[in-house]
């Protein structure tokens, strides 16, 4: 049996970051990755001249040293910094995102309803869920016209299942003063008011994380199947490995399965996202980088326009469809037909001809963040840590976060477990 100090499970952003920041000889760590390539959800597809991610992946760095670390390892790669333009298609009108700050752009009757209900909202009550939160903060009309239908389409669940703060810093909060001020002075600033994107797609950030790592320390096509917690032995589809620490970025519930620990199916729920990447022969609208679609008759909740990032000549879209975890995806070709028909209904596709497409299912995509599940994850992580097991990353931590958060979390763990290796 092989012995390794740090067995890293998953070659996504989290696993690769840990290997970059753990200050030890490469012989002391090993990454096993189920797929035959690295990157996890941060992968890119190159097809017929189009560059597509596993759904649009755009980047907002809050730690300059992390951004620099990545850039230093992407020589020759063009990385654009873009001022975001995001719209909402509402009943045949386009308004700026976020909805709650741009109700003055709605048709008059909708605007009056939103303003009336915002003013007379009942905010003096206990908030128990995301659904309560949107009603209490913004009133009935804003909730019912956008926040509820959009988020139900995205999360594919009743919104009273989610914690009030389920989206953390990613939810665009605004108080009544912000909303009214926005009527005359547009300020739609948000966590991602600008974003960066590499010409070669999101995978370029993964390539940056691979830059310093010896290839032979990453074993592709090898998946974790079982863990003996007390003996510190991991069984994969190929071998048994004795580890000092097991650093896992696989979904928490899959780690529990491997460890033979039960988890409550009523507590741990998530959505899956069916992504279509679509390449057309000519260009469409030139304003937005992405658009939100609250209309329940349209099958997708968001559409993104890669061609408006680098101003290329052919419309290149990503489409996101939220499905519940137990829903059977069915026939992808049927979905594609529906997507194309809905794109025509919305006026996004007119004369353009589809010339290339690709689809991928992200499962899990957005975990349903609820306090019961969060508490369970925190307790289990604390219990497993003395046994050398660390569950982290977006799915290992059962959370909502961006890739920079994954890099920071992995770096912090590497620094906790060993000497600090500087980020440079
Ligand atoms: C729809 C969507 C849009 C997003 N958009 C953005 C964005 O615009 N900007 C941004 O910063 N972030 C975005 N994110 C978040 C980003 O994708 C994640 O934060 C990040 O990719 C998570 O990296 P990770 O390494 O923690 O997990 P993953 O990418 O899931 O990596 C885990 C790895 O573990 C492997 N694995 C799984 N099971 C096993 C096993 N049993 N054995 C071995 N290996 C296994 C998987 O194959 C995978 O490679 C988005 C996420 C989604 C779902």
Description:
It contains eleven helices and 18 strands. It has 424 residues and is an alpha/beta fold. The chain has three domains: 2-80 and 199-268 and 370-417, 3-Layer(aba) Sandwich (Rossmann fold), CATH 3.40.50.720; 86-181, protoporphyrinogen ix oxidase, domain 3 (Orthogonal Bundle), CATH 1.10.3110; 271-362, 2-Layer Sandwich (Alpha-Beta Plaits), CATH 3.30.70. The strands form four sheets. Strands 1, 2, 9, 10, 11, 12 and 18 form a seven-stranded mixed beta sheet that branches. Strand 1, helix 1 (13-21) and strand 2 form a beta-alpha-beta unit. Helix 1 runs parallel beside helix 6 (203-210). It is globular, with a radius of gyration of 22 Å. The model has no long low-confidence stretch (mean pLDDT 95). The structure holds flavin-adenine dinucleotide. Residues 9-15, 32-35, 40-42, 55-59, 223-224, 249-250, 254, 273, 320, 362, 365, 393-395, 401-403, 406 line the site of flavin-adenine dinucleotide (FAD).
Question: What are the low-pLDDT stretches, counting only 5+ consecutive residues below 50?
Answer: none
How many domain regions?
A: 3
How many whole angstroms does the radius of gyration measure? Answer: 22 Å
Residue fraction in strands: 15-25%
The sequence of SSEs as H and E is: EHEEEHEEEHHHEHEEEEHEEEEHEHEHH
CATH topology title of the largest domain: Rossmann fold
Number of DSSP E strands: 18
Task: Name the CATH class of the largest domain.
Answer: Alpha Beta
Second rung of CATH, namely the architecture of the largest domain: 3-Layer(aba) Sandwich
